[in-house]
Amino acid sequence: MSSPEDRIIALIDMDCFFCQVESRDHPELKGQPLVVSQNNVVLAVSYEARALGVTRFIRSEEAKEKCPTVNIVNSPISHGKSDNTKYRMAGQEVIQVLKQHCPTIERASIDEAYLDITKLVDDRLETTLSSSEDLRTSLSNTFVVGYCGPSNDEIQRSQGLQRWLEEVFDDISDDQARRLAIAAVIVEELRREILQKCSFTCSAGISYNKVLAKLACGLHKPNKQTILSSAEVSELFTAVPVNKVRNLGGKIGKTLMENLNCNVMSDLMRFTLQDLLKVFDEKTADWLFNIARGVDNEPVTPRLICKSIAASKNFFGKAAITDLEGLKEWVGELAGDLVERLEQDFEDNNRRATTLTVCYHHLVEKKNVSQSKSCPMGPYNKERIAGIAFDIISRNMQMPIVFISLGTSKFVSVQKSGNFVSYFKKGVHSAKPMENLEIRKEGSQEEAREISKISREGNEEKSVEDRGSLIKLQEIFPDLNDIDHSVLALLPMELQDEAKLYIKNKESPKVNNAKSKMSSGGVRNGGNTIKNFVVKNSSAVEKSSMIRCSECDQMIQGDKFSEHCDFHVAQNLQKSINRSLGREVLGDSLKRNREKSSSPKSNKKTRSIDSYFSKFKNN
Ligand code: DCP
Ligand code: MG
């Protein structure tokens, strides 16, 4: 990976993206004033409509009032709400083009991606000798901050660019600026290819880090690109409002503006690190101190998929939810949409979300008040997710609900093992997610006998039913020597116990002893919890760098980190099951496990979604 001082980063952002997708599908709309509207609210505005005064987030009727010739396209609907699949797929097409040229791409939103093009630039510099005149011709859509002025005027652009290139090439010591010029040539090529292959225009920012690249990108749009060199940052910052900078749009930006009287970025320079530490935590203070000086060390993290998946809907005006029936209907729809997308994501990306966040807005005295609550994700099950959301929101129904979002995040990689996917896709685990495993009898009788034999050899006292668990286990993990712990953690306790026993029996006593010693420090090997199971397995290797786990604050070996995360998934999942499902809906094995616990909390009966709904039905 390139070092922070040498990096060249580009941010590519599609122009009026939803409008471009719609006008590609309906060519008669190309070049016309156009808006794409969802639930009657304008989300995307073509540049032709912008020129006629139409802005985002107004109602469709208002757009029509401002510009009678505007074309209004309503985005597709699914599950009773807007469906962005078409736009997401179009964004993916663009990523496919970029992937052909640059390996370090971070997809930042539906229509934006950061690219670390340091290596492409350095390779190009080694192989190609370009004069300032060659570059001027290649950079026909490029602006340079500090040289071209703030407007999109073509004469100012071309004169400013020429002046900058001459300075860059005259001053042979300005190696960084030369690299930016080459980077801009590469980005012009990438943008041209996106246009050829996908028929979309986009804009770009080219600089030394993500924050500056993003800032530069917004300066000249559409179908333009902007270079921001470090020499120009301090001047630019005198005019950039704090809340327009990446990461400062929310609470931190608000604190800076309201408490520290920082309105533009250059105001931040007034504060020493010590000053900032009095108001912010160490990490934030450090970041703010650096960004005031144009420094941001965050690398482009190769990620072509989103960090979170959410299903959300606004309920404007009369559509606001005021009763439990309406709430039940909509959390069901949203959960259905969410699960469909999560299952597709699992197929495509081999990962599972571990956190579910239920967010909703109330209308209180005509103002939106936001509430949100996060919990472990558990199985991808529509009824269960709807139940959790219903449980959270229904406690607070005094005021109309105007927005609901069911979001999932903190994805962990999982290997698709055995029948895991079909297990979770069958939807047979709705009321009893951990117990209703419907086993497909695919394995031969011979295999089953062999597994039973291993089980008997390991533990003569096991019952016939228990041996059945091992057969079930092998249905999910055909190779029992390669069990994916994150998948295992989602299975009934009975199967988890079986897996532990199987592994224990396969290991020689000598290995067991050695591992017991290694995993000392309070955790004994061969115990009953998933924690022991994971700790035992993660103690064998000692290599690679250490990573701090945000969940428990421990330092974990890099190559064991994903396994360690699985442990938290398992632990959180366990808590979530205990919380959200009443004992009556849990199978015997889970009950047994709980009864062992002496915690008063574990004996408390919790209400299931079914009980909420039946109570509601009876009213
Ligand atoms: N979008 C959305 N909800 C929002 C903001 C945007 O659904 N609150 C959609 C519509 C946009 C797309 O995401 O077309 C990309 O968002 P951008 O902010 O990049 O806006 P545009 O691409 O439309 O315009 P620009 O040319 O300014 O980037
Ligand atoms: Mg955009």
Automatic annotation (TrEMBL):
UBZ3-type domain segment(s): 542-576
Cofactor(s) needed: Mn(2+); Mg(2+)
Gene Ontology cellular component terms for the protein in this record: nucleus; replication fork; site of double-strand break
Substrates-to-products reaction catalysed: DNA(n) + a 2'-deoxyribonucleoside 5'-triphosphate = DNA(n+1) + diphosphate
Keywords: DNA damage, DNA repair, Magnesium, Metal-binding, Nucleotidyltransferase, Nucleus, Transferase, Zinc, Zinc-finger
Any one GO molecular-function label of the UniProt entry: DNA-directed DNA polymerase activity
Pfam families reported for this sequence: IMS, IMS_C, POLH-Rev1_HhH, zf_UBZ
GO biological process, one term: error-prone translesion synthesis
Region (Disordered): 442-463, 584-619
Domain (UmuC): residue spans on this chain: 9-249
Bias kind Basic and acidic residues: ranges: 584-598
E.C. number: 2.7.7.7
Record's subcellular location: Nucleus
Similarity comment: family membership: Belongs to the DNA polymerase type-Y family.
Matches recorded under PANTHER family: DNA POLYMERASE ETA
Name of the protein in its database record: DNA polymerase eta
Record organism: Fopius arisanus
Annotated gene: LOC105267532
